[in-house]
Specification:
Mean pLDDT: 82
Oligomer: single chain
Number of strands: 7
CATH class of the largest domain: Mainly Alpha
Strand content: 15-25%
CATH architecture of the largest domain: Orthogonal Bundle
Low-confidence stretches: none
Structural class: alpha+beta
Distance between the termini: 34 Å
């Protein structure tokens, strides 16, 4: 990932992505360790760094209705600082990385089978109104595709919604002006791979 290389820390990149995706969510340290699948010492170090920069704020307690007030008070929670001066720039950077920095993901998909057409939308382009995140045309075993998508869901902490079609089905849907297919085209998207014969 471009941003991961820029910041030089996988843990920092995962934490920033998580807080940017859930700007109002409060997280405690061990929850972040589980969510990012990172070592606790690395998480603590990066949290201290991000809090010092002003990217994060420390909040006492939580809104967990299943915890007593005493339990909540003992926990230190981290939340995104909405007044961080470079927040908009960082959001734009992460969105751009989500679109342009997916070569590793694309390579993994192409190693699973035949990929004739790959369109990214939704989470990849920052369009929350899109119905799906990925449209894939080709021949790929669904179980292997599901496994690869689950790996990225864990990294991004977002569900990955996709549609897998054969070349024949894709062409038929285009010919009949299928509402689902053209609905995908109408949303913000980027075509990463296109090996289909153009009409």
């Amino acid at each position: 990932m471009i941003i991961e290389q820029l910041f030089g820390s996988t843990t920092r990149w995962k934490l920033m992505w998580l807080f940017l995706q859930h700007p109002e969510q409060h997280y405690f340290v061990r929850e972040l360790v589980r969510t990012t699948d990172s070592h606790i010492h690395a998480v603590r170090r990066e949290l201290a760094h991000l809090e010092k920069l002003g990217f994060l704020k420390i909040a006492e307690g939580s809104s967990d209705i299943f915890e007593s007030e005493a339990q909540q008070a003992k926990k230190k929670y981290y939340v995104l600082n909405p007044e961080f001066m470079m927040l908009d720039e960082l959001k734009a950077l992460f969105v751009k990385d989500g679109v342009l920095g997916q070569q590793n993901f694309v390579d993994k998909l192409e190693n699973l089978g035949k990929v004739d057409y790959l369109l990214l939308s939704g989470n990849f382009t920052g369009d929350d109104t899109a119905d799906i995140d990925m449209l894939l045309v080709g021949s790929i075993p669904k179980d292997k595709l599901d496994k690869t998508c689950q790996e990225y869901q864990k990294i991004f902490d977002r569900e990955m919604r996709y549609s897998l079609m054969t070349h024949k089905e894709f062409q038929y849907r285009k010919d009949v002006v299928d509402r689902f297919l053209y609905g995908i085209f109408e949303h913000k998207h980027v075509v990463v791979t296109d090996k289909l014969k153009q009409d």
